[in-house]
Amino acid sequence: MILVGLYSIIPGNTLITLITHDLKFYTMDYKPFIKILFTLVILALVDYLANVILKALTFYFPKIFTYTSDAFTAITVIIIAIGGFYIIRILQGLIYSQLLTKLEKSTASSIKVALDIIFYTVLVLVILAALKVNLTGVLVGGAVGGIVIGLAVQTIAQNILSGILVTSSRTIRLNDSVSLISWIWGNPIIGEINKISLLFTEVKTINGNVIKIPNSAFLGNTVFQKLESEHSLTYPYQLLVNADVPANDLLNLARAYINDSFSKMKIGLPEIYFTGKMEVQTFSL
């Protein structure tokens, strides 16, 4: 296979929109972590002072000694509930600002709901533990159920995590021109990113077809290549020909057709070149 690459030099005064990727340097915001630490310190002090006051009241009013244990438990539960709710709000803000804002709205909304369920479930379990409720059966049942559910949704979870990693790292963005090569589907998929959802990414191919690709493919069995760079677009095109067709003849014919089309659109003429050689039946342009 002989590979022929097409490198189109696009002048700045054309009506073609190019997507540029600005380099941004993100600095980690430590304020949420400081707030969480400060909250934990305050809660510990409040719990300590409440216990001291309660013991003092018990000393001066012995009749309330019977209710001391229940009072300690009630104070602990109230502190855990208030502090846990405040810490969850801080974590929600941190995750939203650092991760969810970089995702599509539908994906971010689904992840936010899932995280809220996890956070508040943990808070409820901590409160139940403070109330001295036996959680052994709940934890064992939850562990077994978690394993069963984890095995059942392994592929879905893989797609979700892959989608989060790919989008949060800005590996792909909407309207990116990409080329995806994998042994799973054979021929390369060349097109434009139309939509990035929680499980799938939609790619509109050069033929106008919309293909849904599992997000796990971007981090698994796929060679992913962005076709755009500054003022240029690398566009491969695969063409099957007989083995006895000279590569130079095909290259000259392709150059003539492409130059004619580009001239009509008043776009700078492209540069065509070979990028590799394998077998003799397939040409990529």
Key structural traits:
285 residues; disordered C terminus; membrane; 3 domains; SH3 type barrels; alpha+beta; 6 helices; five-stranded antiparallel beta sheet
List the helices and strands and how they pair.
Blueprint: E1 2-9, H1 31-60, H2 68-98, H3 105-130, H4 136-152, H5 154-168, E2 177-182, E3 189-196, E4 200-205, E5 210-214, E6 222-226, E7 228-229, E8 232-234, E9 238-240, H6 247-264, E10 271-277, E11 282-284
Parallel strand pairs: 1-11
Antiparallel strand pairs: 1-8, 1-10, 2-3, 2-6, 3-4, 4-5, 7-8, 9-11
Helix pairs in contact: 1-2, 2-3
Explain this structure.
- The chain has helices at residues 31-60, 68-98, 105-130, 136-152, 154-168, 247-264, and strands spanning 2-9, 177-182, 189-196, 200-205, 210-214, 222-226, 228-229, 232-234, 238-240, 271-277, 282-284.
- With 285 residues, it is an alpha+beta fold.
- The protein folds into three domains: 1-18 and 232-285, no CATH class; 31-152, no CATH class; 161-229, SH3 type barrels (Roll), CATH 2.30.30.
- Strands 1, 7, 8, 9, 10 and 11 form a six-stranded mixed β-sheet that branches. The protein has a five-stranded antiparallel β-sheet with strand order 5-4-3-2-6.
- The longest helix has 31 residues, at 68-98.
- The N and C termini lie close together (12 Å).
